[in-house]
């Protein structure tokens, strides 16, 4: 996985796993997260963390499998506050999570189709950085764009 230290350009080994019951006890607003992640327990919720520090969750996403529409819906995505903005030390957290969702959509035979409903201020960011396109009120990525995300963020350097 291609997490990268911003100041050294060193690639960092990371992993994405499903959130455990114990994780939910640590995922709180005062621990760097803005959303109430308890409401996502009914969905597949995944965390990303460094192998060198498995206790510190860098980002979270919840996924809804929509087999009737051949897509994975990225219901919620959040990077811990300490890794947002100009002061962050680690790049590619959100990219790795999105690419992971795309890889699941490929494995399920959905042609990598991943959708999300973005905040208005993030629409351009998702389109420019990750190749999402507008589909009504949703943004989505699929096909070769999903494969590019998988290659960029999930391949080992």
Can you tell me about this structure?
The strands form two sheets. This protein has a seven-stranded mixed sheet with strand order 3-4-5-6-8-10-9. Strands 2-1-7 form a three-stranded antiparallel sheet. Strand 4 and strand 5 form a beta hairpin. With 157 residues, it is an alpha+beta fold. The protein is globular, with a radius of gyration of 15 Å. The chain has helices at 21-26, 93-107, 123-130, 143-154; strands spanning 3-5, 11-12, 14-18, 44-50, 53-66, 71-79, 90-91, 114-116, 133-135, 138-141. It is built from four helices and ten strands; from the N terminus they run E-E-E-H-E-E-E-E-H-E-H-E-E-H.
Major sheet size, sense and barrel closure: 7 strands, mixed
Number of DSSP strand runs = 10
Assign a percent range to the helix content. 25-40%
What is the rounded distance between the termini?
Answer: 8 Å
Class derived from helix and strand content: alpha+beta
Strand content: 25-35%
Shape: globular
Gyration radius from CA atoms, angstroms:
15 Å
Helix and strand pattern: EEEHEEEEHEHEEH
Uncertain runs are: none
> Spatial order of the strands in the main sheet?
3-4-5-6-8-10-9
Mean pLDDT: 93
Count of runs of 4 or more consecutive helical residues: 4
């Amino acid at each position: 996985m291609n997490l990268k230290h911003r100041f050294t350009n060193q690639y960092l080994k990371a992993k994405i796993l499903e959130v455990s019951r114990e994780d939910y006890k640590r995922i709180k607003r005062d621990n760097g997260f803005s959303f109430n992640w308890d409401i996502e327990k009914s969905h597949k919720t995944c965390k990303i963390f460094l192998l060198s520090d498995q206790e510190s969750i860098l980002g979270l996403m919840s996924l809804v499998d929509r087999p009737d529409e051949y897509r994975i819906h990225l219901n919620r995505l959040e990077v811990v506050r300490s890794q947002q903005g100009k002061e962050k030390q680690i790049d590619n957290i959100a990219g790795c999570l999105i690419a992971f969702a795309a890889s699941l959509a490929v494995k399920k035979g959905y042609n990598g189709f991943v959708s999300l409903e973005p905040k208005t201020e993030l629409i351009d960011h998702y389109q420019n950085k990750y190749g999402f396109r507008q589909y009504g009120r949703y943004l989505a990525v699929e096909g070769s764009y999903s494969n590019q995300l998988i290659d960029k963020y999930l391949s080992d350097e």
